Amino acid sequence: MTNKLLPPCEVKDLTLTNLGKQRIDWASKDMPVLGLIRTRFSKEQPLKDLRVSVCAHITSETANLALALSAAGADCLLIASNPLSTQDDVAAALVQEYGISVYAIKGEDIDTFRRHIGIALDHKPQLIIDDGSDLVVTLVTERPGQIKEVIGTTEETTTGITRLVSMQKDGKLTFPAIAVNDAQTKHLFDNRYGTGQSTLDGIIRATNRLVAGRTVVVLGYGWCGKGCAMRARGLGASVIVTEVNPIRAIEAVMDGFKVMPINEAAEHGDIFITVTGNRHVIDKDHFAHMKDGAIVCNSGHFDLELNLTALSSIATDKHIVRPLMEEFVLKNGRRIYVLAEGRLVNLACAEGHPASVMDMSFANQALALEYLVKNRKTLQPGLTKLPEFVDQEIASLKLASLNIKIDQLTEEMTKYLNSWQHGT
Q1: Which end of the chain is least crowded, N or C, by CB within 10 Å?
Q2: CA gap 95, 7 in Å, rounded
Q3: How many other β-carbons are positioned within 10 Å of the β-carbon of residue 99?
Q4: Per residue in 368-409, pLDDT tens?
Q5: SS3 of residue 11 by DSSP
């Protein structure tokens, strides 16, 4: 790319390209399923000449998805879905080494973030990959005239799916949207194992604190909460779960965790992790009852899970004590430490999910776009799941990449499963 004009971009430092390329190459070694899809895409060109805007965490794994889409013939433009999740070296490499437009800088302010959303829509996308639905919501509310150009969108987060469901209820989702987050090869593995490992990784990198012997409070016991609780216990922590869903609460109890309201848990926790997708689940009264030295972080998509405005109102002082770690001194003298400004701790303080689990998630994304294009004439507006046969294909490819074989149904078994005459 050195002798070619660079694509339009806004990244921190193009001199980081070599390091970014190394990271992208390293991630690709643990993403064999996406690699197979990329090879097929390069031959079949299913996205040829289609404009794709991607609003996602700009990481080495996302870079490999972008390369697969480019191999499929797409004209890609990437922006960050979170101000703190960008890997600046990866962004530089995508631009300078691979010729892909990227608008993302780690630490960008909200005005820059919003401007980049505008740039992504200026790309006049026919396909959208969204992470939190900021791009789709902005399209619908501010650029309704562009909707007719959109073939469809995909959404990878629980938060984003919640927003799309609300949009659909309000009659605002007038084009097909595939709930990639609901694919089994996404939420069963990415949300549980990816979020679990990367969240604890982020906490440890940010604090350098031992987890063993501490009390970790996990707010929310969806798939992400399950992963965080599992990994915290594996590191030797005593884990408390808080929930509003009685079924999930029972599940947490039967998984061996203590369950109680956050009002009670606030007094016991050493480390708090929010993964609810909701607003102000840790609020003013909860902060006021936390013990001295409590560490608070969020692994849900948006930073509003922690009411940091309320925390500031009861603090007499606040200052940075470590990178991405802020100390709030309360009026009662207790100190509370907030990681990554309440944003995604696994991406702000660490590197996000490991490549091997994102291999399946981004395989879902790539195949979802192909499915939208192939079925553009028959797909109805609104939210839909990726077909089960695509999920099964991804799982089969992942098993094959791990050199694992499984049983196959015999003809007799298949006949029995499709009949009703046989009983006791």
Answers
A1: C
A2: 7
A3: 15
A4: 999 999 999 999 999 999 999 999 999 999 999 999 999 999
A5: coil
230-243 residue pLDDT tens: 999 999 999 999 99
> Between the CA atoms of 31, 35, 41 and 47, what dihedral angle is there, to the nearest 10 degrees?
30
Q: Which helix (H) or strand (E) holds 199?
A: helix 195-207
DSSP assignment, residue 33?
Answer: H
Secondary element (H or E) of residue 129: strand 127-130
Sheet of strand 215-219: strand arrangement: 258-259, 238-242, 215-219, 271-274, 294-298, 335-339, 325-330, 315-322
Please, what is the Cα angle at 57 between 51 and 63, to 5 degrees? 60
Query: Worst-scoring range by mean pLDDT, 91-95, 216-220, 400-404?
Result: 400-404
Query: Whole-angstrom Cα distance, residue 221 to residue 228?
Result: 9
Amino acid at 73: G
- Closest by alpha carbon to 224, among 274, 260, 265? 274
CB 417 within 8 A of CB 409: yes
- Are the CB atoms for 174 and 381 separated by under 8 Å? yes
pLDDT (tens digit per residue) in 294-344: 999 999 988 899 999 999 999 999 999 999 999 999 999 999 999 999 999
- Give, in order, the Cα–Cα distances in Å from 322 to each of 85, 319, 350: 18, 9, 14
Q: Which two tokens stand for residue 204?
A: 């440890």
39 within 8 A of 46, measured Cβ to Cβ: no
Nearest-angstrom CA–CA distance, 182 and 185: 9
Categorize the per-residue pLDDT at 424 as very low, low, confident or very high, splitting at 50, 70 and 90.
low
**Token output for 278:** 């909701």
CA distance 69 to 222: 30
Structure tokens at 15: 């001199």
CB atoms under 10 Å from CB of 388, counted, come to 10
Pairing verdict, β 335-339 and 325-330? antiparallel
Q: Count the helix, strand and coil residues of the chain and give each as a percent rounded to the nearest 5.
A: 50, 15, 35
Predicted pLDDT of residue 1:
43
Q: Which residues sit opposite 153 in a β-bridge? A: 128, 177
CA 98 to each of CA 17, 24, 77, 93, 94: distance values in angstroms, whole numbers, following the listed order: 10, 11, 12, 7, 5
Q: Which residues contact 245 (CB under 8 A, 6 or more apart)?
A: 221
How much is the pTM? 0.92
